[in-house]
Every structure is written in C-alpha cells, then in structure tokens.
Amino acid sequence: MRLLIVGTLGGQLTTATKIAMERGASVTHAPGTPEAMKVLRSGQGADLLMVDVNEDIGQLVELTERERIHVPLVACGLGTDARAAVSAIRAGAKEYIPLPPDPELIAAVLAAVTEEREDLIYRDAAMASVIKLAEQVAPSDASVLITGESGSGKEVISRFLHSKSNRADKPFISINCAAIPEHLLESELFGHEKGAFTGAVARRVGKFEEANGGTLMLDEISEMDVRLQAKLLRAIQERVIDRVGGSRPVPVDIRIIATSNRDLAEEVRAGTFREDLLYRLNVVNLKLPALRERPADILELASHFVEIYAKANGTKPLPISQEGRQLLLANQWKGNVRELENTMHRAVLLSSGAEIDADAIRMPDGSPIAMGAGQQTAARAAHAAEAASRNMVGRTVADVERDLILDTLDHCLGNRTHAAKILGISIRTLRNKLNLYTKEGVEVPGPGEARAGTADA
C-alpha cells in the first residue's frame, strides 16, 4: 500500500504518517500539487492520495486525469468544516477525513483501497484446480497468461498471483490495453521524455518502470496493436525499455501477467497477434471457468457480495431465501462474477423483509429474472450439488464424489447431459463414473428415473 500525503494536513502530518505506517503503508510526502505530480510521474506511484483540503484539489484532480494517472483521492481538514468537505467532494475527492486523524478511520480508508478487489472467494472444484495451479507457479518469475470471459475474475487472480509471489512487497501495476487509445498506449507503457510529443509537458515514467521489482498486469492484451507488440516483445526478452523520445535504454525487472477474453491462438491465425509474443507470455496458462461452469461458487459469492453491500449501505446483511438461491443458481450469468456482484448490490437495496427473496433479485431495469422449467430443474440440481458439498467432513473424496454425482443425477431425473453440465465435467467422464458405480453394485438411475426413495417431491 503506497500512500502519498500532499500538504501539511493542518499540522497533523506526523500523526497521520505514523498511523498510516503502523497500518503497513509506505508513505511519501509532497508539500504541494507540483511536487505531488513529480512523484506520480517519477514511477514511485501511489495507491491513495491524502490531500490537505487547503490545497487546490480541483487542479490536482484535473492534472492527474489529463495525464491518465488513476489514483483515488481523499481530502483532510481540521475539524468538521461542512463547506470544506462539500467543496472537496465536488472537486473530485472520494472522501473527507476530519483532523486530527482518527486511527480507526485511517485504517478503514486504507483497508478499503487495498482490499477493494483482492477477495478470492471460491468453493467449486473447477475453480479450485485453477487456484492450485496458480499457487504452484506464483513463486516463480514465469510469465502467466490468464484467459476467460469478461467479468470472470482475471484481475483478482492476477493480484492473487502477485500476493503469493516473491515480489509481493513490490508494486502491482495494471494497465487496461483496451481502454487507452493506440497512440497513447506506448507512452503509458514505456513512458516519455519532456517534449516527445504534443502534451508531453514533463518526463513521465511508464508502467514498466513503475512496476520495477514487482508485477505488471497487461489487461486485455489482445487489443494491443501489432506494431506495439514488437516493442513489448523486446522489453520482455531483453528486460530493457525505451521511453518515447528517449535516447538510452532503461533496464527493468518485472514479472508479466497478461489477460485476454479472446483465444490468442485464433488471433495469431488471424494475423492480429504475434506468435512469438504469445509464446513468451504463455509460459503458464490459467483458464478461468465461466461462473455458470462453477455452480458451487454462485451462492458463496452471492453471500459475500451481500455482506459487502449491506455494510456499504449501513444495513444488516440478510440471508438469501430458498427461492432466491434457486433463482441465482438457475441464471446463466453471461456477465459472470461482475454481473452477479451488481445483481446482489441491487438485491441488498431492494430487499424489505427478513430475507433476500426472489422478488429482490432483478435485472438492472427492475424487471424480474425469468426462470423457465429447464432452468428450474438445473437450479434444483445445482442446489443439491452445493448442499452436498457442504457435508464432506470425515468422508473420503471418492465417497463424497460418488454421492455428489448420484444426487445431482437424481435431481436431473437421470439426464446425463444436465448432470454433467452442473457438475462441470464432460459427459464421457460422467458415464465412466456411472459404469464404475454400477460394477460396484450401486444403483444408478436411468434417463427419466430417480433412485428409489430419492425422487424430489
């Protein structure tokens, strides 16, 4: 956690610094806006700006936006001056902290910044296998390519890799290659010298240098222009970069994590992605399953988001009703974890009873999420699988797996295809398992059947 304090904080600079450092933050001071911008351009970077309310917050926000430096800003001022607080928020501050600083409030602000996107919540076996591989490769410096649909959690896994690496105490820097215009991305990655192009008012260190010693995440790398891919390849191979307008190479020591929601092998065949760069990036490939392919994670994540947004809105977290759980399990979640998070945020706001019921789980426009007969069957099966997975302590893996497969098959009325989809395994694997159980003398339901005494009411 890197904290940049701008100004004197009304004479409370030492106290605020001490509190922040006790909470594990590294602290840099800047007397005013010019010095703060110099720090931000230099590559030291910051995860949070804590700015004296007497500074020109509007100007600082404008300068950071103009130079595409994305960092949250909180204002600090003596006492509880309502006018100063309102002015700071209007100027672009995310929060106003009264001085003298309260240790718990400072700790909460730092925690909100550092933990915002770092929660790794999973229970499904499909996701557990990905995490296991991530833990194995995290200590190395090998490049990692993370693939998966949009919203499936690629940045969360990237941060997890960094946190488990030997570079965990160094910067984690991310850049979205799809969000920055092509003519600016080179400067964002490699930096530029003063006067290198129109608008280059000062030397600016790029993401490579800012991440020096740590990890650089290149988000949606498939969107990068082929010409720039060549320069990226050289940087990875030779561990040096050239600033735009620079006259000498700059050495860097970083670990690269790249993400994509596209099939890069297909992009290579289409001529939009360099094959040699793919080989450099794809030392290890972590393939994130879509949320619909890991049903045991749905309710776990839903409850997690309820906790987060109930706290954010000052309300008590409510349990999710049986009907609500079935509805969540039945949805396809084409937007993956991001869509589920937004849905549960809405549900927290719309709930009025003792539980979050199906009526509170709605689309963004307020319309209900429809669930057809086929989805209801899938919901019952997924719910059975999720419930069964909670009752595993004291049993062998083989026993738990057999019961989970057979219970899921029961609730699908013997439909092998539905059961395989819910379990996240291939139909061939399922049939092999069922043949084994039959040889062991275990009753296996046929299509349209359920085992005696186990059919749903």
Automatic annotation (TrEMBL):
- Which is an annotated GO molecular function term of this record? ATP binding
Q: Which InterPro entries match?
A: AAA+_ATPase, AAA_lid_NorR, CheY-like_superfamily, Homeodomain-like_sf, HTH_Fis, P-loop_NTPase, Sig_transdc_resp-reg_receiver, Sigma_54_int
Q: State a single Pfam family of this protein.
A: Sigma54_activat
4-aspartylphosphate is found on: D52
SUPFAM superfamilies in the record, alphabetically?
Answer: CheY-like (SSF52172), Homeodomain-like (SSF46689), P-loop containing nucleoside triphosphate hydrolases (SSF52540)
A single BP term in Gene Ontology: phosphorelay signal transduction system
Alphabetized, the UniProt keywords read: Activator, ATP-binding, DNA-binding, Nucleotide-binding, Phosphoprotein, Transcription, Transcription regulation, Two-component regulatory system
User: Which superkingdom heads the taxonomic lineage of this protein's source?
Assistant: Bacteria
Q: What is this protein called?
A: Two component, sigma54 specific, transcriptional regulator, Fis family
